[in-house]
Amino acid sequence: MRRDPDNDPIYQLIARTCQYPPNSLERQRGLTRVVQAIIQSGKLWRDSSPEYDDALQQTWLYLCRNLCEATTAKHPYDPSRSSVITWLDRYLKQRLEDLRREGYQQNATTSLDAEKAPVPAAPAPIPPILEEVKEWARTDPSGELCRTHIKGHPEVNCQTLILRRLPPRSSWEELSKEFGVPITTLNSFYRRQCFPRLRKFGEHQGYL
Amino acid sequence: MTHAPSNPQSSLTLPITSSAQQLAQQFAQPLMGSALQQQVRRNTLAMLAVRDYLELMGIETDLEASECWNPLFRLTADVSDLYLPQIGHLECRGIQPGETVYQLPAEVLADRIGYVVVEIEDAQRQATILGFTPTGTPKLSIRRLQSIEELLSYLHRLRQPQPIRGVNLSQWFEQIFENGWQTLDYFLGTSVNLAPSLRSYALRDTQTSVQAGKLINLNLELGHRAVVLLIALTPAGREQVGIQVQVHPAFGETYLPPNMEITVLSETGQPLKHVRSRSLDNYIQLPFFQGYPGERFQLALSYEQVQWMEQFSI
Predict the structure, then answer these.
(1) How is domain B167-313 classified at the CATH fold level?
(2) A199 contact B CB<8A
(3) Most exposed of A62, A162, B64, B249 (fewest Cβ within 10 Å)?
(4) Pair B143, B100: CB distance under 8 Å
């Protein structure tokens, strides 16, 4: 089937998008519309393999990086050579193959030219932290958590709030009712006074 | 291309990647058995979908500087933010298909630049960014969200360097007055009915100094507490500008009310000097001060519980 770029709405969208400089608002809007249009066309390769979602996300990144200028590919998309769907399908299938071959589940490293959206490894497992935080808040070694309280409410201090907010968590509504302090006051106190102390403890313990 | 608010074009569907699944599982795990567990998992998937989208757009995010990255915050607070360097924290919340109202927890109603809502379809492993709102309310109506394109323009606006706020005093020498500042001629010809003290001051106009005033109504309920703040600028050699600040009564009053206070503050809000009116003061004035072009200061005028403040650059 011969392509007719002039009657292809996605092609026109691409042409308009690439008129604008990289990272401009117009370019970003255009790229968003191109992705939306490709999804809506329903023509992009689909399968139910476990690698598909990762490969698809890499494909969107490949599209956005190389549609107008070649940022991670050798050449940018060339509308005279193929439709954008054909161009993306080729990349997507290649990624699927790579991911399968690499035994992706065990091995997070990807091939040299693969697009990746790395998620950094998250800090240590949680349950021991929960016990340690509880212990720290309960004993309050420096007395600082107890001393730091809402003006006129010595009972509403960082120690109480941290302990009550640890799972199983009391809601801010419950705490507000119980202490007779507005939710917004509780929250801004918690954020300004208790967060920094939690952060310091976390850093000291090496969680962060 | 046209689009109505309800147009499906205003949302964007992205795949949920395997690393997102893992991280969401990890964030939700400590809340095992609690009703919050699934919500935290969805919120984390939402946050990572927004991160993936912003990465497509080339907009920088810093997951490790996000509040939700901190396990101790996550243990005690319901946060699911994504930090955008130099812009701020964007809260991302995940909903199940069909939800029409989303209850935002109290802890994210402050310190956020906006709220993005993402529909999480577990069976399809898809995350659909539905839209956003710059202002958080305890109950978010999904239907009233702004589109994803509006999120892009909003982030662009936030990234623009903030224009210098306040009054540019050097423009006064070119007779450019803004923000309600007027030449003294203006006041002399209107019903503001300047006090005799200001009339006599205005008559001392010299060729080198430039003066402008602003009518300030400190307490509308009491009616007659309007005053005129007067600033006179005089070139003071070596490019410095001498600044004289006075407060005069208006609307035919002879005296200022007692205990009205004028304060000059540094750019960062540090009070430098202040003067307070006594009973039967015709006007008050701050000690004369000087500054170089580009320097900034603030003036605060307060009376009883009411305060007026403005920033100036020389």
Answers:
(1) Immunoglobulin-like (2.60.40)
(2) yes
(3) B64
(4) yes
